[in-house]
Amino acid sequence: MVGKTISHxxxxxxxGEGGMGVVYRAEDVKxxxxxxxxxxxxxxxxxxxxxxxxxxxxxxxxxLDHPNICTIHEIDETNDGRMFMCMACYDxxxxxxxxxxxxxxxxxxxxxxxxxxxxxxxxxxxxxxxxDIKSANILVTQDGHVRILDFGLAKLHDQxxxxxxxxxxxxxxxxxxxxxxxxxxxxxxxxWSLGVVLYEMVVGKPPFExxxxxxxxxxxxxxxxxxxxxxxxxxxxxxxxxxxRGLAKSVxxxxxxxxEFASDLExxxxxxxxxxxxxxxHGTKPEPSIAVLPFANMSADPEQEYFCDGMAEExxxxxxxxxxxxxxxxxxxxxxxxxxxxxxxxxxxxNVAAVLxxxxxxxxxxxxxxxxxINVADGYHLWSERYDRDLEDVFAIQDEISLAIxxxxxxxxxxxxxxxxxxxxxxxLEAYNLYLRGRHFWNRxxxxxxxxAMECFREALEKDPGYARAHAGLADCYIILENFGAMAxxxxxxxxxxxxxxxxxxxxxxxxxxxxxxxxxxxxxxDWEGGEREILRAIELNPGYASAHQWHSIFxxxxxxxxxxxxxxxxxxxxxxxxxxxxAVVAGNYAGIGEHDKGIELANKALDLDxxxxxxxxxxxxxxxxxxxxxxxxxEIERYGDAAPNEHFKKVLLAHAYAHAGxxxxxRTLLEEVKRAEPGEFLPRGLIASTYADLxxxxxxxxxxxxxxxxxxxxxxxxxxxxxxxxxRSHPRFxxxxxxxxxxx
Length: 745
Prior knowledge:
Elements: E1 5-6, E2 9-18, E3 21-28, E4 33-39, H1 48-62, E5 72-77, E6 83-88, E7 92-94, H2 95-99, H3 106-125, E8 128-129, E9 138-141, E10 146-148, E11 155-156, H4 177-180, H5 187-203, H6 213-222, H7 228-231, H8 237-246, H9 258-274, E12 289-292, E13 296-297, H10 304-319, E14 326-327, H11 330-333, H12 343-350, E15 354-363, E16 366-375, E17 381-390, H13 394-409, H14 429-442, H15 447-463, H16 468-483, H17 489-506, H18 511-523, H19 528-541, H20 546-558, H21 562-575, H22 580-592, H23 596-609, H24 615-626, H25 630-640, H26 647-660, H27 664-674, H28 685-694, H29 698-711, H30 715-720, H31 732-740
Parallel strand pairs: 12-14, 12-15, 13-15
Antiparallel strand pairs: 1-2, 2-3, 3-4, 4-6, 5-6, 7-9, 8-11, 9-10, 15-16, 16-17
Helix pairs in contact: 3-5, 3-9, 8-9, 10-13, 10-14, 14-15, 14-16, 15-16, 16-17, 16-18, 17-18, 18-19, 18-20, 19-20, 20-21, 21-22, 22-23, 22-24, 23-24, 24-25, 24-26, 25-26, 26-27, 26-28, 28-29
């Protein structure tokens, strides 16, 4: 077979074989990509049942466009009647191979289990049960992505089961009790099998063993596995409970859905990542974490408010650069500004161990600054200090306070070193206050308030043209205005690029400027690698910059590094837990990977944070449509109300909802009306392409996709991130679109 050309595939090498197929690496000579070809073994070519199973596998996997499921491109037959399917080819290692080297790190095991849970959730939602989840059927690619392989034993809801009643089917040590007894199975049998794989990854061997399949099945039916903590004491108590529930012998005692299984695993994974609230069998100490609240203004002058906010802002920036300390972002910490609050309640909402609060009193040119660090657990003061200084010493005061807090928290061994400063700043207090006002408006992410932010940054630069942070703030304003369709892309990115260049010429270590440059690289230049280098530099310079993590997550989603994308947006939310925009992106991320119920829950929480913020309504409408809940999808568009950019924007959403509901003529009418929108009117153009694809109008869908690319706007990111365009991804014209922007699938 090696060296032959089958259809338009040139076979390169044999990768492996199993009972239901032989797999080869091949080159697709038409689309110039590497693929995997799975052939039905010669001895099964004349077996009608084997051929049916082969077709079922192709139908099951190809019906699922999900980042955690192996992609099937097509199924075909050779001239001599031998069936084969063409699949995406991934370089990586199966979990079975990984576990042969011993137990996996807990975080790796959780990442694999979460990825498989998400993929199974998508399959179960489509009525597909895998029935052969095992470590050999789970691949971890070289870049860490998890893929479910081999749907050869899958059962499709709309097709008869090929298994005779009373027949056991699957791999013995991964079978659920009901599967082992030959009884009918549902989605919960896959959850059992995944529980077995998770146990195997944590311990290094499966929970049920025996000398032969009969002995293994007897163990499954009659014995309980050894608790994880007895074998591996550092296993979190919560993880042990999750695995026990997944391996409950009674179907009714197991997780009802893969989504719920994944949600509980994600809680453990996030706790282990942050260690802020983790309780393990050994009682791991929480990670140092802090929220810096805005300092109270004890002076009569209301303009002093910005100086007070600046105190907290600079302390946040300095602390965020320290390894091992999690610092809540300004936007979430400042949500408590002007309120009487219980520090313990603040700590609980922001998920931190300590809160810093303080006050500023100004008399003439003298300042009295007080600060106190409070332990959230009991409300007691850990440290307090008072500083009396001349006004011109303000930046030295900020560094002094940051160092004192750092020493008390014992985040790292500082020795004789000072806490890192935030980089070059301005000596002009008016410029400084204007910068802070600008960031306040910018964080609200509404075009009218972003324009107010621009004025603040411009005024700051009039006071101090060498103020790097104000230049970076101005660049961010141009980026957000373009993103909302309030400014032409060519003009916005020209101005943003110039502002970024000025900022970096003054201060190469300015994290905000590097993040802005990353966005420009992606959107204007289609320089994906260069953009990622810039965003990683921004995160390196300021790990606490939540917007950098958010933008990195968007990029990772576009290049289909979905596990990393989710982790990045969750990190952004951890840093800025009260940000409506980040909360909405988290919701969209979950909905996009098929975790619909969780996406809905989180989108509603985003609305709780800011009911006037419209983006969550869009996420809810799209999610309800995907779930077939069409009336609710339409209702969310109505709830969008005046928060929508314009009426034509809402018509696109409504057309999408109608297309999913089978109301094709109404959807087409709306899309025709949208064509009459003003040239500069903001529209979700990626969704227009997706809606045409849903209507089966592939030519118009492709035309829409091609027109988006020509804009060189942030609409390109929306198009490339649009998961419902799966129907177009195998089309040569769409492949040309991807090639034009420097991406391949």
